[in-house]
Amino acid sequence: MGRSYFVEEAVGQYLSDFSTKPKACVTGLLIGQCSPQRDYVILAIRTPPREEQNESNKNYHPKLADIDEEWVTAHASQLSRMLPGGLLVLGVFIVAAPELAKDIQNALRKLVFSVEKSVVKKRLWSFTEEEVSDRMALHLCSATKKILCRTYDMQDPKSSPKPADWKYQSGLSAFWLSLECTINVNIHIPLSATSVSYELEKNTRNGLTRWAKQIEEGVFLINGQAKEDDTELLEGQKKSSRGNIQHRIQPFDVKVLTQLSQSSGHRSAAMVQVCRGSINLKGAVKCRAYIHNNKPKVKDAIQALKRDIINTLSDRCEILFEDLIINEAPAKKNSEREFHALPHRVFASIAGSNVMLCDYKFGDETAGEIQERFSEILDQVVHGEAIHIAEEINTVDINPPVDNTDDTQQIQLTKATLLSKLQQNMGVAIAAAVAIFAVTFSFNYFSD
Predict the structure, then answer these.
(1) Of 192, 210, 242, 392, which is the most buried if we count CB atoms within 10 A?
(2) What is the Cα–Cα distance from 272 to 262, expressed in whole angstroms?
(3) Within 13 Å, how many C-alpha atoms sit on residue 36's CB side?
C-alpha cells in the first residue's frame, strides 16, 4: 500500500496555475512533514528561473530537455536552510504536457534522488531506521490537470516507483503545534599545529559534529516535565465540549539538559594536542520546531527540535564561510584582530499557516533586499509586515598569526563553494528553523 499525502488546498491551486501555460515545463519542490501514518504537504515552490529565463522574456518556454539538475538541487539545498525543525523537502514536481509523460517519469526519478542527496549531505544528523525514507515525484499534466504521484525509497537507488494518494485539505497547518527552547552555546574547537593545509570550515564542522552528539543525547523537558517518548504531546490538554482538544496557541516551552562530563564508569585516556589556534563559539540560541496536530508523539516533537538546534548553528557557520569566500575577504597581515558580523535571522509568515520560514541577513542588507529574496526563493509575495527581523549582536573575532598569511588563505574553492556562487546568482544567497540567535564567533591563532 502506498503512502498518503495530505495537501494544503493552496498547493493545488498553485500547481494548477502553471497549467495555463501548456508549452511550459515547470519544476519545483514540495515542502512538508513526514509521520508514520501520513505525510503533509504545506508548500509547493517553483525552481527560480535563471536570468536568461526570467519572466520578462515572454517568448521563452522551458522544455523537458532544459531541466538543469544542478540548478534544481542548488535551490533545494538553499531552501532547506529556510525550513524550521520538523519540515523537510518531501519531493519534486514537474508540470508538463501529456505527451512527455514517459520521459517525465525518468526525469522525476533522477531529480528526486539528486535533491535528496543535496539536502542531506551537509547535515550533522542522520535519519533513524524508523523514519520515512520515501520521497515523492509528482507530475501534473498541463492539459488535463491530472496528477500522478509516486514515491521512491531513498535508501534504495534501484527502488521501483510506488503509487501514492494525494488528498487536499483546507487549513492543513493553520493549527500546527510549536516547541521553543533557548540553549547556551560554548564550543571550543582547537586547530592542530600538525595540520599543514587545514581548512577552517572543515575544523568547524568537526567541532560542531561533536557538539551535535551532545544535543542528540541531551534530556528535553517539555513545560518543565520529562515525558515518555511514546506518549502523545497533547496528553492532558483541555478538551472542548465536543470532545476535541482545543487548539493550542502558546508554544511548548522546552528546557535542554546536556551532559557536562562523562560518567565515572566510563574509562578514557587524556590526549595532549599541540595547537596553533582555536575557534570559539559562545552565545544563546533560541529555536523553534513545528509538528502536526494529529496525535503527535513526544519523541517526534523532540526530534524535530533537536535537529533545529543543530541546523541553525551549523547553517550560520556555513553561511559565514560562504560569504567570506564569495566576497574574497583578504587576510590582514600582521594585524591583531579582524572582525566580521554574523548574519541575523529574519522570519516570514506563510499565508494560512502558523508556520514561519526564515532567511539570514547581513548587517548591510536592507529590509527591501530581504523581502525581495523571500519573494524570489519562495515564489510568492511576502509583504513587509510579514517579515520579522531578530535584533542580535553577532561578531566574528579573528586573531591571525604574524607573518603567516599563506595558512590563513588556504580555504579551498570546493565544488560546494562554486555551487554557492551559483546560488548567489539565483538570488537565493545566504538563506532553517525559526530561531533568535545571539552568538560570538571568534578565531584565535597562535604563531610559532
Answers:
(1) 392
(2) 18
(3) 9
